[in-house]
């Protein structure tokens, strides 16, 4: 997330750390809002093959994947690594 895109520009004054953090927080809030809106628009039932795009992407033996990694990745690939 861009926080200080004009730092290189000679015609702009310097910014403070507080301004950069405030911009970062606004960017974070906006990213969360975009994700919430995108998730709300997703269909309840997936009928395309895109829902299986990761079925053969994980080559690691399931038994070798640490439990912590399985937990962290559950929402994305849980059905393939459990």
Protein traits:
mainly alpha, 82 residues, elongated, 49% helix, single chain, 2 helices
Secondary-structure map:
Elements: H1 17-41, H2 67-81
Total number of β-strand segments?
0
Oligomer: single chain
Strand content: under 5%
Q: Helicity, in percent? A: 40-55%
Structural class of the secondary elements? mainly alpha
Low-confidence stretches: none
* Topology order in helix (H) and strand (E) letters: HH
Q: Could you report the average pLDDT, rounded to the nearest whole number? A: 88
Verbal overview:
By secondary structure, this protein is mostly helical. The longest helix is centred in the middle third of the chain and has 25 residues, at about 15-40. The chain has two helices and no strands. The mean pLDDT is about 90. The chain is elongated.
Summarize the structure.
The protein has 82 residues and is mainly α. 49% of the residues lie in helices and 0% in strands.
């Amino acid at each position: 997330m861009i926080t200080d895109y004009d730092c290189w520009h000679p015609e702009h004054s310097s910014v403070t750390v507080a301004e950069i953090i405030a911009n970062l927080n606004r960017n974070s809030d906006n990213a969360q809002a975009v994700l919430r809106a995108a998730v709300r628009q997703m269909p309840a039932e997936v009928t395309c093959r895109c829902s299986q795009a990761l079925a053969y992407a994980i080559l690691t033996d399931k038994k070798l994947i640490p439990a912590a990694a399985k937990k962290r990745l559950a929402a994305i690939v849980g059905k393939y690594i459990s």
